[in-house]
Structures
1.
Amino acid sequence: MPTRTVTVGSSSGLHARPAKIFVEAAAKAPVKVTIRSGDRKPVPAKSMLSVLALGARQGTEVILEAEGEGADEALDSLAELLAKDLDADV
Amino acid sequence: MSEVLTGIGVCAGIAAGPLLRIAAAPALPDPVPVTDAAAEYARAEAALAEVVAELGRRADRTADDTVAEVLRAEALMADDEELRDGVRELVEAGHDALHAIDGAFATFREAFAAAGGYLAERVADLDDLRDRAVAVLLGLPMPGVPAPGHPYVLAARDLAPADTADLDPEQVIGLVTEVGGPTSHTAILARALGLPAVVACPGVLAVPDGTIVLLDGSSGQLRTGVSEAEATAAAKEAAQESAAASTSSGPGQTSDGYGVKLLANVGSVRNVPAADEAHAEGIGLFRTELLFLDRSQEPSRDEQVAAYRDVFTAMTGRRVVIRTLDAGADKPLPFLNQDGEPNPALGVRGLRVARQRPEVLTTQLAAIAEARSQTGADVWVMAPMVSTLAEATDFAAAVHDAGLPKAGVMIEVPAAALRAADLLKVVDFLSIGTNDLSQYTFAADRMCGGLADLLDPWQPALLQLIGVCGEAGRAAGKPVGVCGEAASDPLLAPVLVGLGVTSLSMSPRAIGPVRAALAVRTEADCRRLAALAVAAPDAASARKLAL
């Protein structure tokens, strides 16, 4: 299954505004994308509550997974988003 | 069946209309057995959808981008596939819609609480969303400020910032709370919005929703059982009065031409248009905390320069008194790690933070100096929570080292007020923060509604301390301002001027009425009133002298 491992780049972590931006982007992806941190159970990337509950901070490594047509493209753009500092982009 | 309830008036003006209460969070009823799981889940799903829709409507309605973003983020949390899956599983396991929603939120609640920090603070958001969904299912109004689509007087036990973030001033025409005091959030909000308000008004929550009331923010009285005709007439008269006050313009002065600078309190460049509309002569308090709130790290120097420059540019040629970071107590900042102080109001706050983190102050002063050098505003810098001459001396040196010309200190601690003359030997000006000066003079917590009478700005002991500062200013020929809530009371303004105060800084909305109040008194009148008020036996007698 296509997978990307990304380090969270946003200075406040995957919270608040960065989480909102990521979740909204994931919801628009043509495939179902999951996100997990460490060996915890993968959760849907378009679920705001699940993404927040990861408690990912800046520097936390998260793993994105998706399957199906367009999975690689979707993962690439989401991975790029996660690696950026979305807090700085105000 | 007309009845008069009395509280403390905190923002002058008359409001007349139906009284509506802020809706409380609904209690969860006992569980009921479910016969049709599919129908039960559909009910739960519809309730969540209504919560999302309502938050979206509120976000669309507010003019404030920050508030809109917060509301949309909340909506996104309620519009969640995993949450719906959790609800469905619980319904299929035999729970009714109410308890399934409660249970599904509880799962996330636990995860958030366990994660700590930022997420633990979001637990309140989850509870709010659950309460909203529960209210929909029970057919009750959603908790929070009502939005009936017509003007009304809002009643509550007390109001928190979260309740009022998107309060619609087109609908809410007055505020009345059962508890709270002259410096509570309700009072500050009322002055910012120019809404007539009464706090510490016992019995107001017993008035049935929809009763037509007449609220007088000057006398602190609420009349119930008013006829529609009376209400309409009162509202019309109030509108005419406020129109007259808001058309006043020009520099503040007494009837015999004694100048008193009328300045605005702002938190960011967003407040500057309101200050201009009110013909403010400058900014008397630029609070810099906003930039630091909700931050895990100190904002960078460049970010600070940009924020300060925005305000300075808008105020080119005018005075801007900028206050260095006032953190701690009711405004804890995550990056300072101030947890665990037994008594934060008496702890490391304001300038005291520089004892542990001097670089935060140095960076801020450097950012202010850089922003000033790029603009043409007359920038003055002051520190909050100064108690001693040594602190004032160190601060003035740091300000001058940064290349800034004017250093001042706030007078919030009685020790500093008593030593005002000494402080003026090392600083260029004083600015009295009456809210904190009340709290520390009367040993009465600002957040403690039951002690509201002690926090009344008309307390003669408080006025006496202000007088000590005013005298020191007159002797030294240096300015002494007031930037607390007391500065926005049109009745009190002449008294403050008589005590030696040379500038008054307030919410922009309050400037018009204060200008009008000063224009009908001579300076000698002000001095006479001030002497009488300080000599009065209590706050109520002092206030009566000025009526």
2.
Amino acid sequence: MTASTPIETTSARDAQLHPVGRRIMHWVNALAILVMIGSGWRIYNYYPALPWHFGFPYYLTLGGDFTVTEAINNEDGLANALAWHFAAMWVLVLNFLAYLIVGVVSGHFRRDFLPVSPGAFARDFFAALRGRLGHQLGEYNAVQKVFYWGVLAAILVTILSGLSIWKPVQLKELTWLFGGYEFARVVHFFGMAAIVGFLVVHLALTALVPKTLVAMVFGRVSAPPHPKKGVLR
Amino acid sequence: MTRLILDRKATVAGIERRLFLRQSLSLGVLSMLTGCDISDQDDVQSVLKLMSRWNDRAQAFLFRREALAPTYGESDVVRDFRYNAFFPAADAPKLSAADYRLELSGLIEDKRSWSVERLYTLPQQGQITRHVCVEGWSMIGKWSGPPLGDFLKRVGADLSAKYVGYQCADGYYGSIDMPTALHPQTIMAFKFADQILPVKYGYPFKVRIPTKLGFKNPKWVTTIFVTNRMPGGFWEDRGYNWFSGS
């Protein structure tokens, strides 16, 4: 028996779930999204786009300490948040574009996110409500597929509405598409809200099935996560 | 035997991974709980400033002189337009037509100063455009006055220079890029809603730039200069993006 045999055995038992490129893009995206949300919440607080008077708790926003900013910048805390927002914007957009291109070219979208139909979504959704939807690493059920398409769409809409707020003159056709400057801010807000909603579910499910986190960090898990059958009782 | 060692190695690796994971997780939780915000650190500040310079260049690249800001109808004009400055309206500088002179300096041939009377002889045009504040609010207003580009040509400004800077009676200062200064909708606004510009909106004139955020539109302008050295600006020196184009 050669030394390599057990290693091969171990590898064969592993499921390669996420190639390194996808994992890097996932975590770059996670960081960029967090910076965008944190700074965006503070920017929102300075002039809320929605008629209801609510603001985000100051300690959840990104942009530095009020008094420190006042001391070093002689400014009340908006400049830092904007600087973060317009810096992370490049990371988010470039990473998102790379992900879309790789997703199409590598067949990741076709293989993992398709096919999906309203019928399959309804079936899996109600199965999940009854607690009868199994989870198999590396294989997405219809609810997951719809969720991933949904968050990709939400990120896209948030990026485009964000561009239309940033450049309402140079990109005025885009701004018009979002119902004008004022309404584009509302769209941008609800795009963010959809992403945050996804994040809550995403993190909750990750906490329920921690192996998905291991897979997203190391690419593989050390043993078959579940027996071949998908449905757990 | 070999297998046993390898398995053990795998186990050790697994434990290390788990430890690493747990440590990185707790680091994240710790920074969240303590509200540790890295924004104010010097190196973070310099990276953000670097990105802001990059955004200046990107926005200058996106800027097209022929792209006009959307215009609106008379009925869209907000009559009670918001007063906005870093001091209350009562403290706004009250410049008198008799004493006021617009000073010109820098890369300009004819540096003679201009009285209000003489400024009013320049051909004016009106615009109904949206004023967008960096804070996020916006209002539609009607401003009238001569295009800044026409004025710069008339006084023999070096139009190949990079920046047009301004100083104001309230101590405010700032600058814009030459392409924006020459944009057809960049005007020296002598009027608001067809009335002589009130004191609180910048009498005798504000530079109205619908392709820039509000803070790039100076009021109570007393000096205009042309230069190749980046003059910065009041809010830009406090961390806001310099180009701030729309």
